[in-house]
């Protein structure tokens, strides 16, 4: 860019910097040049449009993701169940991340209060994740899945008990009555031979 052309824009540039600051003054023309009139907010977990990814960090390693759910529900009451989507562990299990709709971010931030153990923030960069990602059914879906597992386990126990009952008393051999019949028939044959001198 020739210096003579730049000199024509110095005065308005200085005025813009005074009004908005250097970063804002530079960012606006760069956005205009790139053609970015609007940028859709996307999840950092799965790139879904209209979602913001939040991070809930914990000062100790969590053995189970339900600990994060419990803390969220204690501070943000029961309605958080339907707002949190796709919760997953951060690498090392020292926290979780999850998605919320863009409309819910401000409300959550206003209700939440950090503690020495738990800190909540908005994710600004791609995260290293660990373990399976929950579906978009929230805690309710996790709870129903646990219930299904318990029902399946109880069904297996009943089946094993039924199978043991079908075995009968110990020591009883299958076909035992047939062996008794064969012994009785042999005795009858010997008696018949003696009676007729055979």
Structural summary, described in words:
By secondary structure, this protein is of the alpha+beta class. Among the domains are: 28 residues, no CATH class; 90 residues, Alpha-Beta Plaits (2-Layer Sandwich), CATH 3.30.70. The protein is built from eight helices and five strands. The protein has a five-stranded antiparallel sheet, with no helix packed on it. A hairpin with a 4-residue loop joins strand 2 and strand 3.
The multimeric state of the shown protein is single chain
Per DSSP, the total helix count is: 8
Helix fraction bin = 40-55%
Low-confidence stretches at least 5 residues in length (pLDDT < 50)? 137-151, 173-178, 191-198
Biggest sheet, in brief? 5 strands, antiparallel
Task: State the order of secondary-structure elements, H for helix, E for strand.
Answer: HHHEHHEEHEEHH
Distance between the termini: 131 Å
CATH architecture of the domain at 51-140: 2-Layer Sandwich
Could you report the average pLDDT, rounded to the nearest whole number?
76
Proportion of residues in β-strands: 5-15%
CATH topology of the domain at 51-140: Alpha-Beta Plaits
Main sheet strand line-up:
4-1-3-2-5
Give keywords.
14% strand, 198 residues, alpha+beta, 8 helices, Alpha-Beta Plaits
In brief:
With 198 residues, this protein is α+β, with helices and mostly antiparallel strands. The chain is built from eight helices and five strands; from the N terminus they run αααβααββαββαα. Helix 2 crosses helix 3.
